[in-house]
Structures are given as structure tokens and as C-alpha cells.
Amino acid sequence: MWVGPQCALALSLTAGVCALPQVAPVPAERPAELIRGVNLGGLFVLEPWITPSLFEPWAAPSGSPVVDEWSYCAALGKSECYSRLAQHWSTWAQEADIATLAGLGINTLRIPIGYWALAPDPSEPYVQGQIPYIEQVLEWAFGYGMRVVLDLHGAPGSQNGFDNSGRRGDIAWTKRAGDMQRTLGALAELA
């Protein structure tokens, strides 16, 4: 979908290895340059430490069950979750932010994305609607000559058990039937 000379894919998996076919390296279409990059974490995969304002209603008492995007959406319901996240997606990163980064010499953005934006399962509490916002950030980044790494940061079943996988808790990615195929399906949507 978005892969090209300015856009690459990454898969953040820390609990398992996915065997993909060997492919020959593609010659660079741009001259080599030092990568100076930033992470747009918290934009399309919620993490309470990056986006604490979204989690404030559940901040006390400690031990709150709302600790990741899965539980956030489950607590709010899909309609309210979508409303709040659409507001977040439309305001978290703006063109002025991208322009400022480019002006400071940043030439690469890493954009973490959860599988649920690309290969949703209606039985899960996650909401969709990220794609137009992802495309907007890509347009801004490319307009300022930046490269982008689209990082499939959350895999079905959770690849690491942390909130940054979309769901904190058990690592089921390598244990549940179909999760590997759903992950590959999400990657195919990116490509």
C-alpha cells in the first residue's frame, strides 16, 4: 500500500521469529545519508506512559484494568473509543510538528501501527479508522523529504505481553492458531 523508496516496513516482534521468503536487496534509489529519526509512538498504538491524558479517568487507584489499547476500547465501547481516538489521531501529530522536525534535521519517522488497523477482527474491542490519518502523516513526511518506517508494532495475540503490543498480559502470538497468518495479512496490507 505505502512501501516505496521513502517508506519501509518493520515488524516489532520480541517473542518469536517469522520465516519470510528470502528476497534480494533492492538497490537504494537515494544516496546514502545518516539516519536521524524520531518515533511517533503513542499515535496509532496507545501506551499509557506516552499518552497519559487518555488514561487519566482510570489513573487511580493503581491496579486499574485499563492499561492498554485493548482495555481502553473495551472500557469505553467501540463508539466512544472511536470518537476519542479519532480526536487523538487528528491532533497528536500535525504538519507543523513534522516541519519542525525536518527543520531540526530529522530525516526519518518511525510510525508504530497495530495489526487491528490493518486486519481487524470484529470480535475484538479495537476500533479502526487510522488509515486516513496514517496517510496524512505520510504525506507530510514525504513533503518534507523524510523517510518513514511503518512498524507493525502490535501483532495478534500480543508478541511481547506489553502495552505497546496493544494488549498487556499473556504472550499468545506464537501459541494461538491463526495469529501468524493474521500478522502476515496485516503486513500484506502495508505492502
TrEMBL record:
Catalytic activity: Successive hydrolysis of beta-D-glucose units from the non-reducing ends of (1->3)-beta-D-glucans, releasing alpha-glucose
Alphabetical list of InterPro entries matching this protein: GH (IPR017853), Glyco_hydro_5 (IPR001547), Glycosyl_hydrolase_5 (IPR050386)
EC nos: 3.2.1.58
Domain Glycoside hydrolase family: 85-156
Gene3D superfamilies from the UniProt entry: Glycosidases
Pfam families, per the entry: Cellulase
GO CC term (a single one): cell surface
Region forming the signal peptide: 1-19
Location in the cell: Secreted
GO molecular function: glucan exo-1,3-beta-glucosidase activity
Single GO BP term: glucan catabolic process
UniProt KW keywords: Cell wall biogenesis/degradation, Glycosidase, Hydrolase, Secreted, Signal
Sequence similarity: Belongs to the glycosyl hydrolase 5 (cellulase A) family.
Protein name from the UniProt record: glucan 1,3-beta-glucosidase
Taxonomic lineage from the root: Eukaryota, Fungi, Fungi incertae sedis, Zoopagomycota, Kickxellomycotina
